[in-house]
Amino acid sequence: MSNGKERAYFQIPPGMKDWLPGEAEKKRRLENVLADLFSVWGYREVITPAIEYLEVLTAGHNQEEMMYKFFDHQGRALALRPDMTTPIARLAATRLKQEPLPLRLFYLAGVFGQEDPQKGRQREYHQAGVELIGSGSGAAVAEVLALAVEALRACGLKEFTLSAGHVGVFNGLVDWLGLPPEARQELREAVQARNFVAVELILNRYAGSQKEAALTILRLRGGREILPRLKELAAGEAMEATVAELEEIFSFLAGYGVEDYITLDLGLLRGLGYYTGLVFEGFSPALGYPILGGGSYGHLLGRFGWPQPAVGFALGLERVLLALEREQPRRSGEGKIVYVGYAPGREKEAIALALRLREEGKRTVLAVAAEEKAVAEEQARRRRGELVYLG
Amino acid sequence: MSEQKWLTIALPKGTLFSSSVELLARVGLPVGQLQENGRRLFFVEEEAKVRYIICRPTDIPTFVEYGAADIGLVGKDIIEEQEKDVYELLDLGYGYCRFVVAMPEEVAAVQDWREYHLPRVATKFPRVAEKFFAAQGMQVEIIKLHGNVELAPLVGLAEMIVDLVSTGRTLRENRLVEVAEIFAATARLIANRVSYQVKGERIMPLLEKIKEVVAG
After folding, report:
1. Residues A211, A212, A214, A218: what is their CA dihedral angle, to the nearest 10 degrees?
2. A118 interfaces chain B, CB cutoff of 8 Å
3. Which residues of A touch B67 (CB under 8 A)?
4. pLDDT reading at A119 higher than 70
5. Interface predicted TM-score of the whole assembly (ipTM), two decimals
6. Residue range B161-184, pLDDT digits in tens
């Protein structure tokens, strides 16, 4: 009766998701809130295609094995976008070079990656994010970080924090330690995975007397008051420049009044290869994985022939929705409705009433046929709506 | 009560359990309930704002990865096999054991394990085995078993095995001999990525105390 072929019609591939009415409405509402917020901060929406040439997407980073790839009929390799930063870099570098800098762009988009769906990750997920292109100044970075805080606040999350690190801290540290290139990569991977046992083993091999200072730096967390500590622990020009940059960023953050949401975490490195400066992640205590991530990237636009510094972040809509759900269980997704039922002969009045209610902004469901009051009551009850009956 | 203040710790049943409880007691956590020999798997210590989850060692990385537990104590052997997205904070030093490749004594005496072409390797740890042989440039056929791996070469199911040994007694009793060591494993303190960030003020001091106990 049911072989595998037949049943495939009723299924969706692993990691994909249908959005049912209540969920879809919550998502739409969140998107509207974020789009409004980004707009009032002066960011403009852009939309890019879901499918790009593979070589465009691999210009950003080297996660090719995670992408959905295929060929068009001319044999060119295509892929579904795994994030929005690279497509927007391509768009900006090819279409928006004449615009006044910096560019401020935002997006709401589905992105794709062949993640293991058993790890609580979807293979299609939705992001809302911004990119500020054409400046890497402390003020630009602080603006984007402050907007990230505002975005999480606007989502309605009660509790959240952001952690920020700086790629320059890591680079300054390995310079100061004088690590050989192969050890740098090894240390980078261990720090990124927060495998402190491995970090210690690598430092044992290479760092000598500087080991304790290096470990302390990689574990250093706190507000801007930890920055002088960093300078004491590891000298060097690169480190001083990074500390100065962080100090500048934090002085602007204080101006935005968002300093309290942000913890400096000097061991934070994000996986994506294109980050070159500040990196940050957002967390909700209700969820075991980050809900937001971003940072500044200096070289990505250069890959598209337009070297410009840039900074941005992306927020995971599914993750934020899940965190909201855990913070406030049973929060209803859908707004209340009014159900208009009517007896035979009162159709036109019912239509007029429905139009009036809709004009007032009430969600109005009009019966599609005359019905008895008991039937109308049942219809309204099952829709958890209020009944107006023209008898 | 804010979720941020509570700390949930996952502890492994079995051989690592008593050393883990002892460690927690030495850093001043309440462990009275854990020492009762009951069947309960979940304990709440209101005053210390600590919850304990007791589960199979192989499930600990999962509890921690999803954030159902903030931190966990588990063997490196399991972390290595599962490749979960968790932070590995500290080597706890106890629970020492080694991953080894072993073969029947009489075969090992005449044949080098590296000279096989596509040998069958029986193991409970397919990822560890696969990674090791790939690093040697050897192609192997991995046969996943759920226990008593030492049986496989004796009945012709596999040419060699990859298994954990602590004293080596099981190998000797089955007339198997170690031909290569893959790596040594000990118990580790692992943490959820988000807990590490949002519960830092609880995890960091605990980490420091555990470090002192482990070092001392």
Report:
1. 130
2. no
3. 287-289
4. no
5. 0.73
6. 999 998 889 999 999 999 999 999
